[in-house]
Structure formats: C-alpha cells, structure tokens
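Lab notebook page, bench 4
Experiment: in silico fold of construct C2
Operator: M.H.
Input chain length: 431 residues
Purpose: comparison with the prior construct
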Amino acid sequence: MQHRFRRMALVPIAGLALIIGACAPQLMLTPNICVDAEKNPWEDVPTTLRTPEVNVIFATDRKAENGDDQPVRYGSKRSEALTFGVCPVAIGDDWSTLVDESTRPTRRRAIPLEVGAAKVRGAFPATPWKVDDAQADKTAALAELQQQFDGAQESFRELVAQRLDESPHKDVYVFVHGFNYSFEDAARVMAGLWHFLGRRGVPVIYSWPAGSGLSSRGYNYDRESGEFTLYHLKDFLRALAGTPNLGKVHVIAHSRGADVVVSALRELNVYYDAKNPQDEKPAATALRIGYLVLAAPDIDWEVAQQRLEAERINRACERITIYASPDDLAMAIVRYLFDSTIRLGTLGLLKLPRQARGNLARLVDVDVIDARVSDGLVGHDYFYNNPAVSSDLILLLRDRRQPGAEHGRPLIKQPNGYWELHDGYPKQVSD
C-alpha cells in the first residue's frame, strides 16, 4: 500500500481537475438490474414521458455567461441570485431504440446525451438583500424584496407541482454534483439516472458554481463555491419542501457536493430542532427528505464523524446511504493534498480504528456500502458508471429496499458493520 501513496505524491494538483467530473456525453452503462429483467422497467411509464427528451428541473447560482439575445448558458462564476427553470436533455432520438438499448449490457450503438438550452422560469432576489441607504422607507423596500422572494418561491413550487401531475409517483430526485462539474454534466447525470429509475417522479439538479477550469486553483475555487452556495441551497430545499402533492425528496450528492449538502443539512437541522424540539426528526419532517445518498463523498473522516455522530444529521432525513470505494483515486489524491487521515469516500482504503468503526456501524438509519467494483483508472464516478452500484441505487431509490438479501437487496454484510458490493451485483449472491 505504501508504494501506492508514493505514486500519488507525484500527481500534481492540476491533475486533480483532469480526472474528476467531466461526465461523458453518453448514456450511462445499463445497470445490471435492467438486463434480462422480469418486467420491462419502462412498462408503467406514462405515455407523455415515453420520449427521448428528458426535462430536468434546475436551480442554480451559477452566473449566465451570454447575452440576453442568446440561449442561456451557465459557467462557473457565482451569481448572487438563485435561478430556476427547465433544462432539456435528449437521450438518443428514438424511444423504442432507447428502451431496447437500455436493457443491453453491451450496446449495439452509442446513445448520446444532448443538453439543450436552459429555459429560465424565474429567480429569487439576489442575496444578501440590498436596500439603498438613501431610501426613505427601508421597511417598505424590505417588504418588496420579501414579496419578490415569496413570488419566486411560489413560481418554483408551481413548476415542480406541474411535473408531479405528470407522474403517478410523487417523489422528487435531486442531484447535487461535485468538483469540476459543469451545468451540462449535472443535467446529463440526472437525466440518465432518472431514465433508469423508470422515469418516476421528477428529476431535479441543484448546480452550484463549480468547474472553474483545469488550473492548480480550480479545486480551491470549487471548495469556496461550496461555501458560497450554502445559503441558496437552504432556500432551495425549503422552497421544494412546500410543493403541493409532494411525496418525498431524495437527494443524491456526489463528491464535493456531499460536503455541500451535509453542511446545509447541518444548519437546517439546528434551525428546525430549535423550532420543533419534540420532533424526533424535525428537519426531515419539515424538508420531506427521504433518502440521502452520499456517493464518493469528499469529506474528511474526522469532519464526517462530527456531522454524523455528534450533530446527528441523520435526523435531517429518513435514511443515509454512503457509497465508498478503496479504489477511488480521486479521493486518495485529495486526501494527500489536504493531509487528511481518511476521506469518507475511501473508508475501505485505510482501516478506521475499531471504536470509530463500531460507532459508525451503530448509527441509526445510516448504511455504509463498500463498493469493491471496477470503474476505470480514477474510480470516482462508480455510482452511475458501474452497473452494479447503479443497480443498488435503483433498488434503494425506486424500490425503497433496505440492505440485505431478505429485503431483495443482496449486499454482503461485513463484520465491521459495512455492506459490501462487487461487480455482478445483484446476481452474485443469489446465483
């Protein structure tokens, strides 16, 4: 193992930007669970959703890079206003071909993912709210800003509610991306995941200002953008929770996005705990968060321990699922750069102390999945790139199955309290 770390030490920081993010513009590999399935995963999809185009709802505090007379394109700069709308993603060009290729382990043809121009539906007032000192009636000015905020919140909820009306399933799936992701990368990942979830509920991305470029400062910029976006993310989650006819909100947070989401939920947990101290899970009740998935989370282990054990962010959702991999080279590089003891996304790489292992295993409503799978050189995007892990994600989000073969989710239980997953899952245990 030592020789591996010596090799990592030779990787320049600029190389980190070269290997994280940058989603390939093709449909993700077919999850194992969709190959030779007893039932067509898209059999119950409403007619209106049987189309190659996926309309992903977005909320972003990225700044638009182009002029008013051009299609909207979001870059990596920060905006003081949270904007929302719809981003179309075309998955191929024919529904029957798409369904056929989506059940094949090896495709006969590539299925491209084409991201169209974002269609803005509204924006929240810029934060912090600005009132001119020269205004005579500052109270009236603040009231006007509050009215604008309330109007934007209502428009956003109407947008989500309209989409919920199109589906018999009333859950919303939110993807929060990680470092070096573009707006388009996030839209592609969510479109692919939602397609393989059987097009249930509503797909949403929360895209924060990441992907500043392939420079030695790119990672540092993205880390601070993660701090910048917290206020807007909290507004987004509160606005989403108030949507009429909403079932649950399931959040998939990847890489650096996991730290962003955990930080926001930590603050919201404190807020709702003060408001409703008698509630067992006050933030989860208020925000309607069901499953929180932390995929390859870029969080220092000691920080994660505080969030999970001391501050109990599991009270902000029904259940937390952590996907970690010992072969995640990206997280190993980050560990080296920041001199972390362990990153949460590579718990299998270095052994936790026995007491810490036991504490993590005993946490209520927290499952740790040790993904012993192949995913190319970097091994950071396995949550959607690897057919075994994406299968488990579907069993969790679509079918709401708990870990264990007795629940139809045959992960391997390890003595350390983790669950283990290998290539070939879910057939590896039952066959």
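Observations: Confidence is low (pLDDT under 50) at residues 1-19. The longest strand covers residues 74-91.
Next step: discuss at group meeting.
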